[in-house]
Write a structure and sequence with these properties.
Layout lengths: L1 H16 L15 E7 L5 E2 L3 E10 L4 E9 L2 E12 L5 E7 L9 E13 L2 E4 L3 E8 L2
Parallel strand pairs: 2-9
Antiparallel strand pairs: 1-3, 3-6, 4-5, 4-7, 5-6, 7-8, 7-9
């Protein structure tokens, strides 16, 4: 059991060293919103508890953010309304997310990916996708 826990930590550390998504480098188009990175909560993430995740972004103007959608290792999307949008520096979107969605059981390291839906030119559009590796533990 202890060996499998250590192996999980080594795998998580290896995954965190890899880039999960590339951020486009070209200039923003008028009205565009682009995610830069996602920060998971610090400390232990326990299964089936709601946590706040921070999404850092850049944008042309102040986009109206509707919701954020997540995939847990490909399972999803699990979408929720945003808790808060900060247009200062840094620009962030705060989103509450349950640490294990229905369909995934147990503990382990997951690839968590996210995009944001926002209004651009009066129409709903999606941002690019950012991701992070998240280790989830049982209660």
């Amino acid at each position: 059991m202890k060996l499998s826990w250590i192996a999980s930590l080594v795998v998580a550390a290896g995954f965190s060293a890899l880039s999960c998504a590339t951020v486009p480098t070209e200039p923003l188009a008028p009205g565009e919103m682009r995610l830069l990175k996602m920060e998971a909560p610090t400390g232990d993430i326990r299964a089936n508890i709601v946590y706040v995740f921070d999404l850092f972004f850049e944008a042309d103007g102040h986009p109206t953010v509707k919701r954020a959608c997540f995939y847990w290792s490909g399972d999803g999307p699990y979408c929720s309304n945003v808790k808060r949008v900060n247009y200062g520096s840094p620009r962030t979107v705060e989103v509450e997310l349950r640490s294990i969605p229905p369909g995934i059981f147990g503990y382990g390291t997951y690839q968590l990916e996210c995009y944001v839906e926002y209004i651009r030119d009066g129409k709903p559009v999606r941002t690019n996708v950012v991701g992070a590796h998240v280790a989830v533990m049982l209660k």
